């Protein structure tokens, strides 16, 4: 089977994108295709597969399949890439439009022209802070802010929330010393998170700037994670480390995002997206 694709990245968080406005495929194809196409040795190599589809409730729909074949709920870097693609390819008429995801309907605004979108702002909506909404085991109405979290014999402090995905945020003194590889996989599959979780490590530089690294459920270590960067800012605000309703610069491995948790409770993410390659993937099931 010959499958046309576009490979794009948001700060190094790279996915293969399929335009399903032009051609659709059988539903059972997507999970095995994600695993195959993401394989760096026998496929194209990526953090996963993203589908761009028509929607009955928004201007378009985005679906995310991680490199392990599991379906994700949302992807901040993916949203920016999708927004760039649909505007540059005339699939939407306005610079401001809505995107349906498994987690929520979000709005996106693109800056540039039909030939080149250079910046995208996405309204990620409000975070969900109750333990039952994340979800995380324990008293359902509690918020999880700086809570003792013992894992692998170590005592950490976790701040957890849901924004597009379940997120577990940990603060460290030095980002380069964060136990990303040692604990990332263990925490993401911890039974205290029934739906698993993205795991973020954060070093606060000052009240308007943080360093960030991430282990994504279903993908492992990635260069960037938009929903995780938003979660890192929310967690930093909840712990009194950065300011609410201010632009916070988040330094990810792949580059910088600007995140604001506004007074209306919505989280705004601004950053770039780039096309890496286009082509045909030759696939046999």
UniProtKB/TrEMBL annotation:
Keywords: Amino-acid biosynthesis, Cytoplasm, Isomerase, Lysine biosynthesis. Substrate binds at residues 13, 66, 76-77, 165, 198, 216-217, 226-227. Its EC number is 5.1.1.7. It is an enzyme of class 5 (isomerase). It catalyses: (2S,6S)-2,6-diaminopimelate = meso-2,6-diaminopimelate. One of its GO terms (molecular function) is diaminopimelate epimerase activity. Gene3D superfamilies: Diaminopimelate Epimerase, Chain A, domain 1. Pathway: Amino-acid biosynthesis; L-lysine biosynthesis via DAP pathway; DL-2,6-diaminopimelate from LL-2,6-diaminopimelate: step 1/1. Its main location: cytoplasm. It is found in: Cytoplasm. It comes from the Bacteria. The record marks 216 as: Could be important to modulate the pK values of the two catalytic cysteine residues. The active site is at 75 (proton donor), 75, 225 (proton acceptor). Catalyzes the stereoinversion of LL-2,6-diaminopimelate (L,L-DAP) to meso-diaminopimelate (meso-DAP), a precursor of L-lysine and an essential component of the bacterial peptidoglycan. HAMAP family: DAP_epimerase (MF_00197). Homodimer. Belongs to the diaminopimelate epimerase family. This is Diaminopimelate epimerase. It comes from Sporosarcina siberiensis.
């Amino acid at each position: 089977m010959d499958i046309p694709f576009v490979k794009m990245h948001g700060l190094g968080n790279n996915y293969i994108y399929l335009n399903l406005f032009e051609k659709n495929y059988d539903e059972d194809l997507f999970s095995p295709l994600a695993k195959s196409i993401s394989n760096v040795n026998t496929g194209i190599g990526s953090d996963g597969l993203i589908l761009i589809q028509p929607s009955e409730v928004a201007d378009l729909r985005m679906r995310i399949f991680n490199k392990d074949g599991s379906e994700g709920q949302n992807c901040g870097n993916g949203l920016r890439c999708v927004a760039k693609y649909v505007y540059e390819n005339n699939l939407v008429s306005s610079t401001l439009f809505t995107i349906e995801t498994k987690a929520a309907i979000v709005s996106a605004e693109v800056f540039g022209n039909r030939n080149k979108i250079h910046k995208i702002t996405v309204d990620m909506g409000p975070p969900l802070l109750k333990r039952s909404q994340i979800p995380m085991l324990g008293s359902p109405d509690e918020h999880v802010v700086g809570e003792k979290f013992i894992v692998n014999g170590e005592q950490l402090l976790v701040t957890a929330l849901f924004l597009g995905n379940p997120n577990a945020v940990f603060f460290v003194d030095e980002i380069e010393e964060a136990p990303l590889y040692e604990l990332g996989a263990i925490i993401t599959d911890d039974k205290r998170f029934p739906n698993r979780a993205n795991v973020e490590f954060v070093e606060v530089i000052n009240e308007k700037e943080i360093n960030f690294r991430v282990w994504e459920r279903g993908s492992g270590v990635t260069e960037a994670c938009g929903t995780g960067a938003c979660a890192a800012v929310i967690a930093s605000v909840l712990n009194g480390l950065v300011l609410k309703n201010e632009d916070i610069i988040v330094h990810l491995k792949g580059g910088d995002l600007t995140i604001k948790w506004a007074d209306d409770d919505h989280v705004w993410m601004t950053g770039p997206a780039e096309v890496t390659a286009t082509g045909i993937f030759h696939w046999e099931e």
